[in-house]
Amino acid sequence: MDIIFEQAYLFLLFCFILSFFLIFTITRSRSSLKVAPSPPGPPRLPIIGNIHLVGKNPHHSFADLSKTYGPIMSLKFGSLNTVVVSSPEAAREVLRTYDQILSNRSSTNSIRFINHHEVSVVWLPPSSPRWRLLRKLAATQLFSPQRLEATKTLRENKVKELVSFISESSEREEAVDISRATFITALNIISNILFSVDLGSYDSKKFSEFQDTVIGVMESVGKPDAANFFPFLGFLDLQGNRKTLKACSERLFKVFRGFIDAKIAEKSLRNVNPKDVSKRDFVDVLLDLTEGDEAELNTNDIEHLLFDLFGAGTDTNSSTVEWAMAELLRNPEKMGKAQAEIDSVIGQKGVVKESDISELPYLQAVVKETFRLHPAAPLLVPRKAEFDVEVLGFLVPKDAQVLVNVWAIGRDPSVWENPSRFEPERFMGKEIDVRGRDYELTPFGAGRRICPGLPLAVKTVPLMLASLLYSFDWKLPNGVLSEDLDMEESFGLTLHKTNPLHAVPVKKRCLN
Ligand code: HEM
Questions:
Q1: Mutate to test the pocket of ligand 1, among 444, 458, 461 (most ligand atoms within 8 A of CB)
Q2: Structural domain range at position 431
Q3: For residue 215, what are the contacts with CB-CB under 8 A and spacing of at least 6?
Q4: ∠ CA 80-313-201 to the nearest 5 degrees?
Q5: Index of the ligand 1 atom closest to the CA of residue 375
Q6: What is the mean pLDDT of residues 370-386?
Q7: Residue 148, helix vs strand vs coil
Q8: Could you tell me the distance, in angstroms and rounded to a whole number, from the CA of residue 492 to the centre of ligand 1?
Q9: Residue 126's Cα: distance from chain center in Å?
Q10: Helices (H), ranges, 299-420
Q11: Which atom of ligand 1 is nearest to the CA of 449?
Q12: Residue 1: which pLDDT band, with cuts at 50, 70 and 90?
């Protein structure tokens, strides 16, 4: 009895010491967070805080401010606390060390207006089982090495169509709108992977509408909006972002619904004889998940997922190719060097294949250099702090919006030599890559929210670019000199060339 009593006593004593220790550590860490100062930042005006400092190109304004306030900086937009990080070390803290706490999203007024945040892979928090399901589906059914291998010929064929379209323009000695042409290619690659149809056509002007719609989506989500800073103003829709996003999303949902309905009808017809599994596209797989009592998805979820994939996956790819071409046209000797490399590897084969890309290190360096100077999402997609957290000795408060200025990191002279020069050579023989491990170059983000489309983008962008350079020489129209080519940027969620690039193709060889 005595022994039992003694053991119980020791156990209670142990529990007491343990609880004391836990309470002490938690209180200490809380109080140390309380004493952590806010990151430095510019003085704030009453009510609006720092909104007046954002400007047309927030990534430029934030880069300038960080020269004064440092690599972790706090700003206040109305009621929204914002922390902007602008160095590889700070990006590593956000995207790796505190990834778990800083991976929520700050959805925007326009996104909430169409209830997209409740179902979307882009806007749901990682704690949501639905987000995990959607990421898993993307990783296994869309972007796994096996799925990418299965869709390789499709991509190569779509790029061949781009080359033949440009070839017609070259016969007429006409300038090509690179932005539109590459957008149609990126669009058709994605629409075929998703539901086996071409959504874009090079011939018809009417397909510019789809491009405008996708760009409208990106702009209405990415543009500054007073209601993001003062939620009570939401209903006024002062910038018209709600209205634009509603109109654009309805247009896209209508298109998707048409394809989904056609698939459902086709599916019921071939009920007895299911299509060859290897020929099933992504929507076929998603529709399977809508069946039965324990259905994991419904058609509304599928429409929203398609909306995300088209929004995130078309314009990003095509504008990267457009920026690469613009840089090469401004730097003719780099273009010559890339073309010489491609010619030496492909020779007279007549067409570039995806498998050739690994043998083109200079071309890959051109793509990396383009990502460095023109990241498609210059501030990534805004993240949100789930709790208070101390980053590099400063407090990032719960619910603060966290922006990683990858555009500024890419142009920081303390990170890159001659940062404003387009010098693909800087990547030659270096291990540095865009896959989220090198924090000086993270155009796809990193950590749990890293872009799921990265494996597709790193195949599509170099293939399109190499094909354009292999089949054609390029010149600027109307006597524009390469050094005069304008490189003005327009900020949305994706960074565009304000004036789409037009260039005249000159055919180099007969096409296969
Ligand atoms: C050049 C091409 C691309 C670039 C530069 C790019 C960049 C990005 C970036 C920066 C993010 C946010 C990452 C973060 O928060 O840390 C992102 C997210 C995302 N991207 Fe991409 N992307 C590209 C292509 C694609 C493609 C081809 C697809 C799909 C077809 C895609 C689908 C997505 C989705 C669904 C998300 C949201 C993921 C989430 O929040 O969990 N992207 N992308």
A1: 444
A2: 51-507
A3: 315, 492, 494, 496
A4: 130
A5: 5
A6: 97
A7: helix
A8: 14
A9: 17
A10: 299-313, 315-330, 332-346, 361-373, 406-410
A11: 41
A12: very low
444 Cα–ligand 1 center, Å: 6
CA–CA separation, 367 and 324 (whole Å) = 7
494 falls within a domain: yes
pLDDT at 35 (0 to 100): 76
| Other beta carbons within 10 Å of 303 | 19
Q: Total domain count for the chain?
A: 1
- 244 inside domain: yes
How far, in Å, is the centroid of ligand 1 from the Cα of 14? Answer: 50
Q: Evaluate whether residue 29 is within a structural domain.
A: no
What pTM was computed for the model? 0.90
- CA-proximal residue: ligand 1, atom 24 (nearest): 313
Question: Which of 451, 464, 493 has most ligand 1 atoms within 8 Å of its beta carbon, as the pocket-test mutant?
Answer: 451
The mean pLDDT of 465-491, rounded to a whole number, is 94
Identify which has the larger pLDDT, 153 or 263. Answer: 153
Residue 271 to residue 275: CA distance in whole angstroms: 9
Nearest CA, atom 30, ligand 1? 313
**Is position 15 annotated in a ligand binding site?**
no
Residue 83 counted as domain residue: yes
Residue with tokens 């952590």: 36
CA-closest candidate to residue 327, choices 435, 161, 469:
469
How many other β-carbons are positioned within 10 Å of the β-carbon of residue 359?
13
CA-nearest residue, atom 9 of ligand 1: 444
Single-letter amino acid code for the residue at 369: E
- Which residues contact residue 366 at a Cβ distance below 8 angstroms, ignoring those fewer than 6 apart? 324, 327, 328, 334, 338, 424, 465
Query: Rounded to the nearest whole angstrom, what is the distance from the C-alpha of residue 291 to the centroid of ligand 1?
Result: 29
Confidence of residue 266 (pLDDT cuts 50, 70, 90): confident
Cβ contact 182:461 at 8 Å: no
Instruction: Report the nearest atom of ligand 1 relative to the CA of 126.
Output: 41
Q: 414: which 2 tokens?
A: 């303390």
- Listed in sequence order, the DSSP H helices in 48-151 are 58-69, 88-92, 109-113, 129-137, 145-150
Kindly give the distance from the C-alpha atom of residue 266 to the centroid of ligand 1, in angstroms, as a whole number. Answer: 31
Q: Which CATH number characterizes residue 335's domain?
A: 1.10.630.10
- DSSP codes of every residue in 170-210: HHTTPPEEHHHHHHHHHHHHHHHHHHSS----SS-GGGHHH
Ligand 1 is surrounded, with C-beta below 6 A, by 121-122, 190, 308-309, 312-313, 316-317, 320, 376-377, 380-381, 443-445, 449-453, 456-457, 461
For ligand 1, atom 19, which residue shows the shortest CA distance? Answer: 451
Give long-range contacts, CB 8 A cutoff, 24+ apart: 506-511.
506/170, 506/472, 506/473, 506/474, 506/475, 507/167, 507/170, 507/171, 507/471, 507/472, 508/470, 508/471, 508/472, 508/473, 509/348, 509/350, 509/471, 510/350, 511/163, 511/164, 511/167, 511/350, 511/351, 511/471
Nearest CA to ligand 1 atom 41: 449
